[in-house]
User: Fold these one by one.
Assistant:
Number 1:
Amino acid sequence: MSSDKNSSNLSDLELVQAIKKGDSKALDELLELYIPQLNAFFHYIHVPEDSVEDLIQETFERMITKIDSFDENKRFSTWLMTIGRNLYIDQYRRKIKSEEIVFEEEQNNSLNDPEKEVVGKISVEELLKNLSDKEKFLIEMRVFKQMPFADISVVTGETETSLRSRFFRTLSHLRSIV
């Protein structure tokens, strides 16, 4: 909601202050107000459907544990969406680190002999080990998930221009390794 007002006419700030005092009814009101917004936000940034509910729950859990760090001069909705975005990025980074990318075999089957020779020298996983977490995340989102730079910008909070620049620098770096 753009006005940061809920159905009981208490502002988000008033609800946060009540939550800090232990008012569970205020927490319920805030949950009711922001679950739909978080749901829409996670769908907008292409979070897999089976992860959305968990991320909403984690976002509110983090909000509750960090409520004392909320800057009351800022918008609550922005703070909450930032928590959700950061949790998604953290979850995605863990996924990248824990999963082995099964891409090499498919690529090898579709490449001609000179390309197979180059790709055979270094696997995708080995290539990604040479990148920072930010670079891995960007490559994963852009190349493997085919997410537009505009959507990646929403997820990361960075400008499209800086993402494009980092993406092309990263590709150049990867080409030099191969």
Number 2:
Amino acid sequence: MKTPDAQDIVLQDFPAAHPSLRLAVVTETWPPEVNGVALTLSRLVQGLCERNHQVQLVRPRQASGDLGARDIGFEEKLMRGMPIPRYPQLKLGLPGRKALMASWSLQRPDLVHIATEGPLGWSALKAARQLRIPVTSDFRTNFHSYSQHYGLGWLRRPIAAYLRKFHNQTLCTMVPTRALCAELLSQGFERLQVVARGVDTRLFDPGLHDHTLRAHWGAGPGNLVLLVVGRLAPEKNLDLVLETFEAMQAEHDGVRLVFVGDGPMRDALERRCPQARFMGSQTQAELARSYASADLLLFPSLTETFGNVTLEALASGLPVLAYACAAAAEWVQSDHNGWTVPADDERAFVQAAVALAREPGRVARAAGQARASVEPLDWPQITLQVEALFLRAMELHRDGRRGLEAAQWGAKSSVAATPAGSLSSKLSRNVNQIDVKNIEAMKSTAG
């Protein structure tokens, strides 16, 4: 029998499977509720599961018969909740620290990530800290800005103080834009990291343009369809939409206005603008078709922490007219993929829209640039960045370094002080001082 020569031996190096993390994700909103927090968080959870992490989703029970979904790839822990005033279809999670401590004592998460700052989120924060589990958080909603639109402006400062106290007890708070990061740093928030929201570039696609839908809107090839997407509520600045529409009609009698969404202002808007089309709430597939079939997204809101509709529209080949804040400030370049005007300058917003009504060819040219500008923001890349931050937080927690200031994350030095560059370079700076290429090595250490 021949003895194998050294040259005949082939060694195959099979890398060890990386250890998965057990993550508890706490939120007070979740699909089928329709809002930016619920939809983007569900995509993040899906991405984490695809990355082989075990996820426990902690959320309020949405209805009396809500038993939790099955065969969804992750575990659900349902908690008590109550309807939110004026938004009865949404639930506010009630305190549940003891229940969470009991659950996490039996099956301990490697990390708790809190997406909302309500009573349930506060309970999760206290339970995790008592059990010495590392905690990270998201800053997803400008509650302190919303208060002024509901006659509660006097609550703005107390709400801001509560949010600061909440987030400063976590190892890291993820914020969606550089501008918001700088604003929160100036207000005393610590350990902030910029992570943009993702967009589903497979779902939102210019190829879904639908002539039949445009005909339903009363629009043909020569018309200019303005689309408004979001909750029909005071904080969305919808009075400016009507003013803009009327000014554009004076220049171009083929302008059409379409609203997608529902809310407390719908009846009043229908009375004031009977020629507009009101489509109500739509599924994600229906919304994608609406984006791809319109010509210009009007987005005059000043209360967004991000504004997911901006990315969804751009991915659909739909240019955006918005104020230079939130996502639009980071991802819209005037006369390239849309237009921005200075924040709260209503006259500039209307004037920009009127100029487009006079020269609709500019809208068509911007449509051709829109999708390419957000293609780097696919959800797998965003999930990778979030995973890197989780691992970094676990490393700091393990080393007993929870008290490190934001500079240790690179937030003060490279987020607040560095000016925004080109669209293509922004994504690479979202996770500061973390090399996502080393994630697998970090996982091995965490495990």
Number 3:
Amino acid sequence: MVNRRLENSINDFGQKLVNLSAGNLQRRGKGGGNLESSLKYSINVNNDVYTLDFIMEDYGAFVDKGVSGAGGKIKTGKHAGTYDGINQYKNWKSEVLNTPFRFGSGRSSGSIYKGIGSFIRKKGLQPRNELGQFQTTVGLKIAMVKVLWTKGIKGISFFQNALRVTYKNFQNQFAKEFNLSVIDLIRKETR
């Protein structure tokens, strides 16, 4: 039996979480793209058990939690220095954790080198010569991959922060709706 009060409360939670996650992406300059438009949720009810699923592009987990680098030394440029490559993020419980993702771990289906090309085009970073003609991006790709591979990518916890805030607010609302649902059920059963 579907409990409309509980379902509405869960729907409200899902919508607030999606909206806040999208807002966090926008505030961090990562909004307006495929990741933001992919944020969705769905509710499934099976034997009076409610399941709330959150859906986003696969790379959303990397943006949220970051990716650790291999560590090492970058000899020149603005990123010159020695790095351990470890990146951390703050989860929805406000705990600071090491990211579970790492370059070179073999757990990703994509290539960092392949993705850099589209990033360069999207951000308008493709080099030009004196005449304003576009030049090859090979050198820029190699330099960017070296920095990312060594340092990693810092996560922005856009989803984790949204979950923390939404869950905190939801606890009181859900408890109230659950209590009202139980009272309604008792009234129906004792008539």
Number 4:
Amino acid sequence: MRQADSTIKGYLYQFNKSIYEILQSKDDEIVTLEGVIEDIDIQSPTSLTTIQCKYHEDKKYQISSVVAPILEMLCHYCECSVLGKSVSYILYAYYEENVDTVSLESFSNFLESTNDKEILVKYFHRIYTIADSEILKIANKPQKSKDDKDKMLAYYKTNRNKLVLRTDILEFWKCFTYIPAEQFDALQEKIIQSFAEVVSVDTAEALYYPNAFSLVATISAKPNKDERNITKNALLDYLSTQKSVLLTKWTLEALDRVKLLRSKRDFLKAYFSSNSSVRAFVFSDDFLEKNQGTIFPFIIQYLDKYFKKRKLQKQPIFIFGDGSSTLLQTVLVSLYKYQKSVNTGLIGNEFIADSFICDTYCAADFACKMTQIKNISSEILEKCHVNQLYIIGENRYSLESSNYSIEHLDVADTETLKYLVWLSMRLEE
């Protein structure tokens, strides 16, 4: 695993744990990533299990390190007790020096003695009965001022010994399990072995695992809860349709970057060996902003290699994000100075699709097509006879079509992109 700060590493570990739990789930169970309750919710027709992941390679275990996630679970248990729901809670945590279990005594002692202001303000009104209606009203505010917090803290200081838990904590503890987590590489290996029960070990390691990682990261970021639901069969069905490694910022951060990029490059070799292919590139605004000074050199180098045989090769299409109009104009002027004519589809200031598509007398007239994403649709790309669509940077575009292949290359810089499309033989480290 590449070096990453502790926050990112925690996310990466959570994605791995999510994959593993999906693979271990039963056919009738639905796994919700970034669940309503915890990081992972597993729901069957008769039960609900919630899992919170914590991964800290550089921290020793302390009760204060795990109190917050346990309190979140206890708060949910208080709500469910009123509704009669049955839930199992799992805290799955890795520390440099870990423990096998968390004792109820150590947790209770912490609650009785803590002066942690954040813990007091955030959780105490949710697990204790608050007799003062004014304080309870303040406590339930979604946003609290400093004065609000001071009033709450003063109340707790005066009434601490009078507070009564809203539920039987012993009953909650029967539903709670602490599991010492495995080290990152060990969990990764278990996932690969699970995939190896379905496909070959090589396919499990080189294709299924990185693509599962990419999918889980993508699903976890969905705003709608229903879009974050997945089943074991759905995951395996999806992976069976993927023919090459999916490149996302998460897979490149978590896995062997060089190995992933080399694999993707090898897969793309056949695409870039064809002279007859029409290729379109969609550059995200974020990618363009980070690579303003190298976009034009990339396009020039691309044209010099892939549009030097005008009778054999096809003009590429370069599509800029809507927030990059100034950069687009700069690139157009630079191409003009290099005597590279461009079809922008513009008649005056208006984009005309037929002019952009322009099937007649095109070969001798221009070196490439170039416009912004707001002007483009899958229908226009189809009429331009696009064979391959490459989306560069984070995917925010919906240009699906059965008439061309789509490759999402969520890379950070043009040097990496040049390597993937065979403009460079060496990968910059």
